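Q: I'm a student working through a structural biology exercise. My instructor gave each of us a protein and asked us to get a predicted structure, then write a short paragraph describing it. Mine is Cytidine deaminase. I'm not confident about reading structure output yet, so if you can add a plain explanation after the tokens, that would really help. Here is the sequence I was given:
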Amino acid sequence: MNGEQLLREAQRARERAYTPYSHFKVGAALLDEHDRIHYGCNVENAAYGPTNCAERTALFRAIADGCAPRSFKAIAVIGDTEQPITPCGVCRQVLIELCGPSMPVYMGSMNGSWSETTVAALLPGAFDVGSLDSSPSRAAYKSE
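A: Happy to help. First, here is the predicted structure for Cytidine deaminase. I'll explain a few features afterward.
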């Protein structure tokens, strides 16, 4: 599946977004190692803090469905923006934790413009498990 096809799937997910406060819908489509698509949309909450972005919804859903961290092929995210939408800082941190650094990230706009980058390029100098002092966690992470 190419970037444009995955962005079309993200557009489908965008329509399911729950955005009664911002009215800013975002959709994501995550491609796993078996070529299955895991959909995500942003889900808002009146308390704001519990709001979840589309990218994290797709990633958490895939993990809950049994996918292994760092086994994903690509993710696409789309919003109604002038330029291709980019993941927020929190989503970038989750992407670095759950995806391979070279995994493609397709970013699109409802106007048809899109671009491609990688997880590592989105968050240079990322804080990851290798940044922690607890040796057992680092050893487990590196062995996967």
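A: Here are two points you could use in your paragraph. Residues 3-14 form the longest helix (12 residues). Strands lie at 26-32, 37-41, 72-79, 104-109, 114-118. It's a good idea to check both against the output above yourself.
Q: Great, thank you!
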